[in-house]
Amino acid sequence: MxxxxxxxxxxxLESFAPRWCLSTETERYxxxxxxxxxxxxxxxxxxxxxxxxxxxxxxxxxxxxxPEDARNLMYLLxxxxxxxxxxxxxxxxxxxxxxxxxxxxxxxxxx
Length: 111
Known about the structure:
Blueprint: H1 17-20, H2 25-33, H3 37-47, H4 51-58, H5 68-90
């Protein structure tokens, strides 16, 4: 029995899957806030070159009929988006100059 979370074509990203394959915006935001810049940079550097291939792979399926490994790949892409601003712009997990402000997602869009 395989313990892989991602499709075999994306085995090179498997080490990031347990930490970043998160199904909700709140989980992804919390992971970002609780990650070091080094962790986010490693993840971002690994997934960014594979993003177009990952999107193309996910696009082969209807959202409501995705196999679990493809859905996890989609979640990994969502996490890439979540860490992109800290990595590319802010150089820190939180939005600069926001003090103790936080984000609480009350409603998630349905899949």
